[in-house]
Design brief:
By secondary structure, the chain is α+β, with helices and mostly antiparallel strands. It folds into two domains: about 40-160, no CATH class; about 170-260, Endonuclease, Chain A (3-Layer(aba) Sandwich), CATH 3.40.960.10. It contains twelve helices and ten strands. It has helices spanning about 5-10, 15-20, 40-50, 55-60, 110-120, 120-135, 140-150, 150-160, 170-175, 215-230, 240-245, 250-260, and strands at about 1-5, 25-30, 30-35, 50, 70-75, 90-95, 185-190, 195-200, 205-210, 235-240. A four-stranded mixed beta sheet has the order 7-8-9-10, sandwiched between helices. A three-stranded antiparallel beta sheet has the order 1-3-2. Helix 4 crosses helix 5, helix 5 runs antiparallel to helix 6 and helix 6 (about 120-135) crosses helix 9 (about 170-175). The longest helix is centred in the last third of the chain and has 16 residues, at about 215-230. The radius of gyration is 23 Å and the shape is elongated. The termini are far apart. The structure holds zinc ion (2 copies). One zinc ion binds near residues 84 and 91. This is DUF559 domain-containing protein.
Length: about 260
C-alpha cells in the first residue's frame, strides 16, 4: 500500500498511470495505491480510510479467531472515513488512538488484543491471546502492557492464559470449563492412546476435532482405536467438533456434566 507521494519518489507519473492501466497497480482511493496481489481485506480497510484492526488484523496475522463475519478497521483517533464499494459498508470501526510506524501498518499485537477485548468480548479475547502467545507474537513486555490497560476481568484472563494451547477450541473449552472447578488438564499423555486434548478429573477425555475434517475413513478408524484403547484403561472419551463447541455449547456442557455426574 502506498501513498501517491511515496510512489512518485520512485516512479514517474506516466509509469504509475501505465501500471494502473495494465493492472500491476490498483487505485484504492484518491492518492492511495495497492499492489494488485494485496489481500482484499487489507485493500478494503485502506479504501475505508484505515488499516485492518481487531479480529480482522489478528486473522491476517495467523492468530486463531472464531469466524469473523465483518471487517474490523482501525482508524486511529482521527482518520477520515471514505465510502467504498457499492453499498454503505459494514466495516466495524475502531477509533482508539496510538502511534504506528507507517500509515498502513497494522496495530501492534497487544493493541489488536485490547481491541478484541473491548469489541468482541472476553472469550474471543482469550482465544486470540492464547494463540498469539503460542505463536510468540506477544512477549513479556506486551503482556505487561496488556495487564496495565485491561480491567480486572481482562487481567485475570491474561493470568489464566498459557503459551501452550494447541488450538482455539482447546482454549475455549478450558475457559468455559473453568467455573466448574474440575481438575482440567490439557495435552496429557494417556497410556495406549497418546496425547489427548483435555483430561477432566483424571478419567474423562475430551477431544476436539478442528475445522479440518476428521471425517475421512482412515481418520475415523484411528479415532475409534484411540477411544477403545482409552476405554481399556478405564477412561471415557467425549468428542466434539468445531460446530458443537462454537454453536451448540449448551449440549457440549450437558454432555460433560452428565458424564462427570455418572461416576460420582
Ligand atoms: Zn472490532
Ligand atoms: Zn468500510
Amino acid at each position: 500500500m502506498w501513498r501517491y507521494g511515496a510512489l512518485r519518489r520512485r516512479l514517474r507519473r506516466g509509469e504509475i498511470e501505465r501500471l494502473v492501466r495494465e493492472g500491476g497497480l490498483a487505485r484504492v482511493r484518491r492518492g492511495v495505491y495497492a499492489s494488485t496481489s494485496a489481500c482484499a481485506d487489507v485493500v478494503a480497510a485502506a479504501a475505508h480510510g484505515g488499516v485492518l484492526g481487531c479480529e480482522s488484523a489478528a486473522e491476517h496475522l495467523g492468530i486463531w479467531v472464531l469466524d469473523v463475519p465483518q471487517r474490523h478497521v482501525w482508524m486511529h483517533g482521527d482518520r477520515h472515513q471514505y465510502r467504498h464499494g457499492d453499498e454503505p459498508c459494514t466495516c466495524v470501526v475502531h477509533w482508539d488512538d496510538a502511534p504506528s510506524e507507517s500509515a498502513f501498518g497494522f496495530p501492534s499485537v497487544p493493541r489488536i488484543l485490547l481491541q478484541i477485548f473491548r469489541c468482541r468480548g472476553t472469550e474471543r479475547f482469550f482465544v486470540a491471546l492464547e494463540s498469539a502467545r503460542r505463536l510468540k507474537l506477544i512477549d513479556a513486555r506486551g503482556l505487561r502492557w496488556l495487564r496495565r490497560v485491561l480491567n480486572s476481568r481482562g487481567r485475570d484472563l491474561v493470568e489464566f492464559s498459557r503459551d501452550t494451547s494447541d488450538s482455539g477450541l482447546e482454549s475455549l473449552l478450558r475457559l468455559r470449563l473453568r467455573p466448574f472447578g474440575w481438575d482440567v488438564r490439557t495435552q496429557m499423555w494417556i497410556t495406549g492412546t497418546g496425547r489427548v486434548d483435555l483430561l477432566i478429573d483424571g478419567w474423562l477425555i475430551v477431544e476436539t476435532d478442528g475445522r479440518e475434517g476428521h471425517d475421512s475413513p482412515s481418520h475415523r478408524h484411528k479415532d475409534l482405536v484411540r477411544d477403545a484403547n482409552a476405554a481399556a484403561w478405564g477412561y471415557s472419551t467425549l468428542r466434539f467438533d468445531y460446530a458443537m463447541v462454537v454453536y451448540d455449547w449448551d449440549l457440549v456442557e450437558r454432555a460433560i456434566v452428565g458424564s462427570l455426574r455418572s461416576r460420582r
